[in-house]
Amino acid sequence: MGMEELKGTGSGPGRETWPNNVRPMTVDALGDLGYDPEGDLYWKGKRIEVRKSLTFTKWQKAGTVIVTVSAAVAALASAASAYVDWQTANLDNASHVEVSPNSSGA
């Protein structure tokens, strides 16, 4: 991200949408605010950390568990089926082995 992209436009939600405890910046306070070439913000030299968290409802968690368990069961069933097919194929091949008569000249 280039420095040109970080320049403010002055646009955005109006102050009427701000929480009651949020105040606008003064010109003097702007001297304490900075940014680096990657766009990270700093206040008085300390990096401002922005966290984004992902939370699930109890139903989403339950759905996640159900889908995960179902996928694991399907994978095990598929592996078991492949193993049985492989064993059956080996037994079929073994039962079709032809034994040639002993040609010892008796």
Largest sheet: 3 strands, antiparallel
Task: Kindly report the average pLDDT value.
Answer: 80
**Unreliable spans:** none
Radius of gyration: 35 Å
User: Structural class of the secondary elements?
Assistant: mainly alpha
| Tertiary shape | elongated
Distance N to C terminus: 93 Å
Helices and strands, in N-to-C order? HEEEH
Strands, total number: 3
The oligomerization state is single chain
Residue share in helices?
A: 25-40%
| Largest sheet strand order | 1-2-3
How large is the share of residues in beta strands?
Answer: 5-15%
Task: Please tally the helical runs, counting DSSP H or I stretches of 4 or more residues.
Answer: 2
